[in-house]
Amino acid sequence: MKWFVLILKNLRRSQRRSILTVLSITVSLFIFCALASVPVVANQILADSASSLRVACHHKAGLAYALPQAYKRAIAGTPHVVAVEPESWFGGVYHDVKDQFPNLAVDPEQIELMWPDWGMSKEAVEQFKELRTACLVGPATMKRFKWHVGQQIMLRGTIYQFNLSLNIVGVLSSKAPPSFLLFRRDYLEQAAREPGFVDNYWVRVDQSSSVPRVIKALDARFANSSAETLTESEAAFYGSFLNNYRLFFQVAEVLGLIVVLTIGLVAANTAAMSIRERRTEIAVMRALGFQSRAILLMIMAESVSMALMGGALGCGAAYLTFKLFTIGNNALGPLSNIHVSPQIVGETMLIAGLLGIVSALVPAYAAVQKNIVDALRLVS
Questions:
Q1: Are the C-beta atoms of 55 and 358 separated by less than 8 Å?
Q2: How far apart are the first and last CA of the chain?
Q3: CA neighbours within 13 Å on the CB side: how many for 194?
Q4: Is there a contact between 183 and 105 (Cβ–Cβ < 8 Å)?
Q5: Which one of 21, 102, 255, 260 has the largest count of C-beta atoms within 10 Å of its C-beta?
């Protein structure tokens, strides 16, 4: 207990310097925590979809090019295919351009077979199949706009020059993309007066070993046609979107390390100045019988305490920033659900501890090893 009280008093010796040191560490570890969270979330998205039985079949030239409606029957007749879901992008907004979120049109017949992991209730699926204007909404979008099941909403067209009136019949679970809205494709085609256009076919296969064979079979089937296809696993499909952020991920990792190293040097300089001012005090403690090892541990404990405090504040600031920034911010695409994971918190706190140890170790060791008589002659 006496050591704890002594450490606390030493931290309060120069409150301004202690506060500024903690704040500098907070800022650096906030930046590290924020930048390191982005690649982790992206890798988690790919890991979650790596074992998926779904594949995406779209136009070889890109998603901006439509595929014929007739492909659905051909895909369904391919060996090992369990379900086929045509998908068309609507891209509507709720009120204005700031209210963007992914809204897609799909066929109602096999929706529960294609996405059984999305937590759609039996009642919601039945209503989706019965009501032409029905829609299913992700939890984040429901919370963002304060919608409720049974509510009628209006989506304003951006790509299409018309609006759609939809009825919310169910909420997707947390395992589904949190900002998605699904509605019926026949309703979109009726409003557009343009039947038979599909942006992408989602295909579910019977087992994971069948995924490569189905991919190869589908692309071979539509080769040399007017609309050749590129079929990808779900992980590869999402990976193609995340590749747009790949350079940002690499820059984020490098910047995070640079910031931590820079603040580490600043913290080391601050610790050296503080210990230099206390050389005479340390010599007096040694003359009174305090062991050098105990004094060294006390000084290290002071440094680590400030570093851990800065790390905790940095993690908290990063968590709150992502909480506020990513709510409803679907411009981030697949990264709209970014957050500070427990893994990043652990890494950040570990770096904080190492920062505290490394910054104080050398000057503290030098101070406790200095000759007592020589140190007592100095005026702090």
A1: no
A2: 27
A3: 9
A4: yes
A5: 21
> CB under 8 Å, gap of 24 or more: what pairs does 348-351 form?
348/29, 348/32, 348/33, 348/36, 348/311, 348/314, 348/315, 349/308, 349/311, 349/312, 349/315, 351/29, 351/32, 351/260, 351/311
Flag the least confident range among 46-50, 56-60, 164-168, 227-231: 46-50
Do 210 and 75 belong together in one domain? yes
Are both 35 and 173 inside the same structural domain?
Answer: no
- Which DSSP symbol is given to 52? -
Q: Are residues 84 and 164 in the same domain?
A: yes
The number of beta carbons lying within 10 Å of the beta carbon of residue 92 is 24
231: pLDDT strictly greater than 70 = yes
Q: Identify the helix (H) or strand (E) that includes residue 204.
A: strand 200-205
Separation of alpha carbons 376 and 102, rounded Å: 71
> In terms of domains, do 264 and 371 share one?
yes
Question: Distances in Å between the alpha carbon of 298 and those of 110, 275, 377?
Answer: 66, 12, 23
The confidence band for 325, taking pLDDT boundaries of 50, 70 and 90, is low
Same domain, 95 and 118: yes
Residue type, position 260, single letter: V
Residues 174 and 83 in one domain: yes
Whether residue 81 sits in one domain with residue 177:
yes
Q: Say if residues 149 and 169 touch (Cβ distance below 8 Å).
A: yes
Q: Is residue 237 part of a domain?
A: no
Query: 164-171 and 134-137: which strand pairing?
Result: parallel
Cross-strand partners of 202: 56, 85
Residue 246 backbone dihedrals phi, psi, to 5 degrees: -60, -45
Domain that holds residue 294: 2-46+245-377
Q: Do 320 and 370 fall within a single domain?
A: yes
Residue type, 95: H
For residue 143 the two structure tokens come to: 């919370």
Report which DSSP code applies to 194.
-
Given 194, 227, 260, the domain boundary residue is: 227
Residue 240 lies in a domain: no
The total domain count for the chain is 2
Q: Which residues contact 95 (CB under 8 A, 6 or more apart)?
A: 156
360 in a domain, yes or no? yes
